[in-house]
Amino acid sequence: MRLRVFAVLMAGTSSVAVAAAQTSPSPALLVLSKHDHTLAIVDPATLIVTARMPVGDDPHEVIASADGRTAYVSNYGFGAFHTIAMLDLVTPKPLKSIDLGALSGPHGLDFQQGKLWFTAEGAKSIGRYDPATDKIDWVLGIGQNRTHMLYVFPDAERIVTTNVNAGTVTVADHEEAKGGPPMPAMPPPGQPGGPPPGFPPGAILPPGGDWVLTNIPVGQRDEGFDVSPDGKEAWIANSGDGTISVIDLAAKRVTATLQTDVKSANRLKFTPDGKRVLVSLLGGPDLVVIDVAHHKVEKRIPIGKGAAGILVQPDGKRAFVACTPDDYVAVIDLSTLTVAGHVEAGGNPDGLAWAVRQ
Question: H or E stretch including 354?
């Protein structure tokens, strides 16, 4: 049975509609509406929309800061746009639009080590924004076509991305700066013929280290993916050929290709116990549930005409699936693998996130 939820969006780019209270719930389910250009804040206990905020053109992905007080939304536009919306989840209210300059087409988002990480599809790059300094403080060129989705390990020493048109996955590993053999005599730093000012004598890597990139071929049009809870594997949904590639992240190679019939796959997520993988199909009616241990489809759950974003509740009891063509978010009971309800949080829902205020 569909649970209908009503909220009123007030006019003006800085207005916020609050249905239940002046302070947002915690935890909160965050839902993007591509049609309405809004972010809805949903109380996961009641499935009621408590607020909506404008987020700018073509919002695709959303992430919350570690303290649950701020949300970031990528304005994608297939490379035409270059902004990320920043929103206060407590008040709630929009805060600002972060201009990424030449780093166009922001899409995939993650938040680790106090910083926002994002893909810039138009620039074939990954960038990092520091909220403390209000600056983009790091950029890494990937050089693959349509660097789209992003996973940053908690220590920020490893990054995984999918590159849709290239049919590859990039694993980027941080390598610390090291001392090397003594350098030959040369003029002092900053002088003609000498190293740049501040460059440490004998260094073989620049200050801050370097990044080693490994590009791993997978299936056609790889997009949605996730890293297993133990950090050992990445599972990649290949929307073009309907397969799933399993990557051993230590060996940095594909160890299995699963024939799971997931053509038009959009997103893939592990359950917190690592026993199941959920795959949404943008062009199909089902949520595909895969048994991780046996590499087999366990069930196909009818949810609508198609789906995009997936979010698994941290306790593993429910999953939320953005059924984009149907204009609702399906609520999945993971104990019974059935649809337990619906949330109407705006037209063409897509990106989902979880926010816990600290």
Answer: strand 349-355
> Looking at the predicted structure, is the pLDDT value of residue 17 above 80?
no
Q: Map tokens 């810039």 to a residue.
A: 120
Residue closest to 96 by CA, chosen among 142, 53, 46:
53
pLDDT in tens, 135-183: 999 999 999 999 999 999 999 999 999 999 999 999 999 998 655 555 4
Cis peptide bond upstream of 27, omega within 30:
yes
What is the average per-residue pLDDT within 98-119?
98
Residue holding tokens 């009641």?
46
pLDDT in tens, 195-230: 667 655 555 555 678 999 999 999 999 999 999 999
Question: Cα separation of 325 and 310, whole Å?
Answer: 15
Strand pairing category for 38-43 and 48-54: antiparallel
Cβ contact 27:44 at 8 Å: yes
SS3 at position 339: strand
Cα–Cα distances (Å) from 236 to 24, 32, 80, 225, 284, in that order, read 34, 23, 26, 4, 18
- Paired with 285 in beta bridges are none
CA 18, 20, 21, 24 dihedral sign is: negative
pLDDT of residue 208: 73
Buried b (16+ CB within 10 A) or exposed e, 35-64: ebbbbbbbbbeebbbbbbbbbbeebbbbbb
Q: How far apart are CA 266 and CA 102, in angstroms?
A: 27
